[in-house]
Amino acid sequence: MTAFTPSTIAALIIAASFAAGLNVYATVLTLGLLAHTRWVMLPPGLEILGDWVVIAVSGTLFVVEFVADKIPGLDMIWNALHTFIRVPVAGLLAYRASSHLSPEMQLLATVAGAAIAMVAHSSKTAVRAVITPSPEPVSNIALSAGEDGIAIGLTWLVTQHPWTAASVAIGLTVTALLMTRWVVRALRRTWARLQTS
């Protein structure tokens, strides 16, 4: 069984926050299943994720998101609404995972977790706004499946190789921030096309 040490909890917060920004239900479900099957020992504040109720609820919501996120138009509404779910839940996961720290450091971990999730969620939503108007459904479905795969893969990876997963999450976060200018331009072009049609 893999157990998180105080030094690897920071890696868990970084990677799980990014994954939650993409798909919070997949992140919670993966952590819950790994904890329940004793594949990993989560930090004391997160042991509740291994409870069958949490696993069942997150699994059900993951299935709903899996479908909703692949329907053009509905995916934009779904992602907009989930700004108020993904970011706070990522912050809550970071808060619970850092319960062994001082109140000041726990607050810092919570803010960092929420900020990382916000970057992941915002970049996902912005890319969706560019891709969704495309008349063919394949790109939207492929993008959604890729996001689900990254969320699950990154969550699993952090339980086996914490700092590798954290490095990947940091790289993806920096990439998302650097791509902001390109995404804004693409959104403007898409918006202009929609207004002229």
Provide structural commentary.
The structure is a single chain. With about 200 residues, this protein is an all-alpha fold. The chain has one domain (about 1-195). Helices cover about 80% and strands about 0% of the residues. The chain contains 8 helices and 2 strands; from the N terminus they run E-H-E-H-H-H-H-H-H-H. The chain has helices at about 5-35, 50-70, 75-80, 85-95, 105-130, 140-160, 160-180, 180-195, and strands at about 1-5, 40. Strand 1 (about 1-5), helix 1 and strand 2 (about 40) form a beta-alpha-beta unit. Helix 1 (about 5-35) packs across helix 5 and helix 5 (about 105-130) crosses helix 7. It is globular, with a radius of gyration of 17 Å. It starts with a strand and ends with a helix. The mean pLDDT is about 90.
